[in-house]
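Table 4 source record.
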Amino acid sequence: MQKSIGLLAFYLLLCCGAVMAQNNNGTIKGFVYDKKTGEPVIYTNVQVLNAKTGVQTDVNGYFSISLPSGTYTLLATGIGYDSSITTVNLLPNTIVTKKLVLTSRDLQLKDVEVSARKTDRITRINTGVTTVTPRDLKLLPSAGGEPDIAQYLQVIPGVVFTGDQGGQLYIRGGSPAQTGIYLDGITIYNPFHSIGLFSVFETEAIRNVDVYTAGFGAQYGNRTSAIVDLHTKDGNKNEFAGIVSVSPIMSRVLLEGPIIKPKKDNGSNITYLVTAKSSYLDQSSKALYSEFGEPFSSGLPYKFTDMYGKITFSGDNGSKLNIFGFNFSDYANLLNDTTHESIANYHWQARGIGSTVVLSPGTTSSLIEGKFAYSNYNIGLNQLSVAADSAPRTSQINGFEAAISFTYFLPNYSQFKYGIDVSGLHTSLSYYLASGVPTTEDRQSTLAGFYMLYRQNFSSKFIFEPSFRVQYYSEINKLSPEPRLGLKYNISNSVRLKLAGGIYSQNIISTKSDQDIVNLFTGFLLSPDERIQDPNGNYVKSNLQTAYHTVGGIEVDVLRVEFNLEPWVKYFGQVDELNRNKQYVSDPDFVAATGLANGVDLSGKYNHGRVYLWGAAGYQNVNYTSVDSKGNIQTYPTPFDTRFNINAVAAYTAGKKKDWDLSTRFNMHAPFPFTQTQGFYENQPVLQLNSNPTTTNGNLAVLYADQINGGRLSYYHRLDVSARKRIKTSEKTNLDITFAVTNVYDRNNIFYVNRITNVRVYQLPLFPSINLTWSF
């Protein structure tokens, strides 16, 4: 602990010294905006031409740079925009605020695009990081003609997805509970619908998504594997606009515009953004696809409704306040393909309200960001069979989140950031043991964290990014110091080496059971207050879960192709699990396991002219070590240990007016493991007074195989294609017509298996659809 505190003090002195060194200079700060919509232009370059230095805007479009007094020329460049040039007279110890406005253009200047992408790769470490924009989302074939982040995440290196199977997301050896997913900084506990082609997020409302698959910095806490950080755009500041979309799967609408318009370019204003989408596939599949036979004739059993609203108050100096709320729900009633009877039903709902604030005070060069939110998520699964452990399961997690951070932008794309976050959580879980005994868990906790991050770019050759986080967990009275580090060395503009790693912790436990052949139930619990044992039978010192990451890589650009190779290792020093062997109330509720995950991912991207090509292949090995039902230590593959996966995407823009988009995507991954069934037996219940043991019937119980996850399901693979035609109906309106075919060769991929009856439900069969989207 003393060494960790000493390291923190060293980091603080280093970073504060770097910031204080700028005090004799003046500062130019401001925001870069899209002229048409008033939306911030993120991750774009602001260069000082006569000082040979520059910075990159953040997710708010904000930049800040400290310089000696003098006259400077600023150049802002971005992919898809004309450049913007402005002159600034800077005096010592003064702060000048500028708003730079970029005008979008239809004709892409390839040299500008290549330069912008190259600058990003050279000035950011980007180890285990993928940034996704709305433009990227629309390049993929879209199921039902509807582009969605859920479909794009599947092609990111290191990500394993279960297709339509409940939208389970596994990132480089981590379970869904070990991956933090954030909407404008607010935790979303289950962002994917039971038909995993779709998320709760509206594609047209997304500003950007950053996916951290390993080695992420100290600004993120309470997760031990990965982070998905999504930001929504603000409403249109200048005019009323929207989108209306209809397909056989769902309808969706987005409306945005000003409540109070700005009186000058990006002056003070109030805007709104509202989105809603609802699926009716359970009904439309009967009417439109009944001639295809089952499962269409009985109706594909998925439906969901998502609503999101946001109001933004923006000031003259770029400061703004966002207030937003959401209500997401999902329901699936899984049917026996032969009898058409329900074999399981599954539902969840997430609600929340929150606010975020961005402040740019005129007296300081720092950017201040804050948030406060409350959310509630609950889920239930009812498997309709006679087995005791198939009784209903329910889980809930709710609470508040609050945070504030300060960011200083330094010359040569360097940065210093620190912040504090606090949250209060409550979790509950109700389930039944194999013996039929009901069990409940209920926990509360307050979490507090402090972090700081410093990034120094040395002459565009070497990037050094140390960060440090201290996290406190009240329910287990545990203080966790967590140093992290990122490095990058640019051998040349086309060859770059990178490395990242650190220590991570979390107090959220997954409620998934390895005894399900397919895991649909995504519930959460806080760390238990009871003493738990490790695989060797020793009591652990703390119930906090920990992990250690190391991820390296090399980036090579060859003839417009960007290659990225990343080997990675994650050691999960402690993973707290529900006791799969619990039979009686007196048995411990939890056990502690250890885990080791390692792998390597290779990806390549070509994006030039009308052609977009993307390919990714990965190998991984994920094993846990724990105690089996006989008290023996076992090392076994996790339920999400698919050894390799392959993704390939091809897109082409056709037509003289570039008004046709053609795309195809292929995905394959190796089989998931599961624990096999050895047989069944009658488990006699505890006898009550006046009961007759000779006539009392027991519960049907499953006899599981000795080897945990010793079996494997079948391979998953699928091919999707789509074609989109854009029709310009007026100066400000467009009609997009998309024809898509999901699962072109009608592959039977597993969705759900009932262990007792062995009834299988498959994912989407061959599924043609057409989508109409009107933009105005």
